[in-house]
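Q: Convert this sequence to structure tokens.
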Amino acid sequence: MGSDLTKLRHFSFDANALVLSNIKAWEGAIAVTSEEDVKAVASSRFLFYVPQRDDVEIRYLRYYFLSARGLAQIGQASPGSADRNRTLSMKSFENIVAPLPDLAEQRRVADKLDDAMNRIARVGNMKNASTSLTLQHADALFRSIEQAAPLAKALLADNKFIDVEPDSTYLITGIYSFGRGLIKRPAIQGSDTAYTRFAQIQAGQIVMSKLNAWEGALAVVSDDFADTYVSPEYPVFSLIEDAVDSEYMEHLLAWPELWAKLTPRGSMVRRKRTTPATLLATEVPLPSLSEQRRIAKQLTLARRVADGGAAQVEQLATLRRTLLDAAFSGRL
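A:
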């Protein structure tokens, strides 16, 4: 609805136009509009350009500005020290000098890059679909389990606190949200922290963020994080070996349905914390140990397939940059 638009001016635009975000062009927010796009309107945060001459292939210019050389020029035309304040100057952009070979060469390069980028995009879409299917598979498996029990049947609180010494150095660990595991933070001196105690963690333990558990900030400690430290904001638990398989628990902690059960009550969710008692009281699917191992094997295999796709996408992103640079150095 027009009443829902911001106070910024909005306007229509043509198809086959070069469009740049005036605050994120330096990061590659550059595209070419399609016939479908012209059904929309844009705010003054976006700059649109159409060719003034018949010998300009707009796709070629878009790819040029996405290359390392072109992005560097866009960056120079976007002054400012802070990311959010780097606004593309129209005057500086329009003064950029770009290579412009004859139209046939422009189209040859653009066609080749279109073909390569479409292939890369298809692989990326397959990776996203694979990840989505993996999550759906895990969700279906967990929901199909009839046996349930509170996590207290599988976990024990296991914080081994030490007093923080001002002259000692501590390797600190944190937790990513959304089931992405642990993160190594910079080492700190005891004199540089307000905490008087840290807990030392060991491989195989479970760590939870009180603040973000409801967003998936839970993880199993791997060997890489053994003997590092967490603050009292990160409760530590050990597995009850005869009750739960560690691999099964790793998949369970990545289940969004579990995260939802850990959401603090009330309106100010981000100021509230999930307590260890809440985690231990939460009911989860907990079948027999043999069934847990069977399920864990299935989920691990599915995850490996998805992770393989992620690695391939990362390689293709590197290939994308290489292709762009090759195109504008005469090597394509």
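Residues 2-99 form a domain with the Adenine-n6-DNA-methyltransferase TaqI; Chain A, domain 2 fold (CATH 3.90.220.20).
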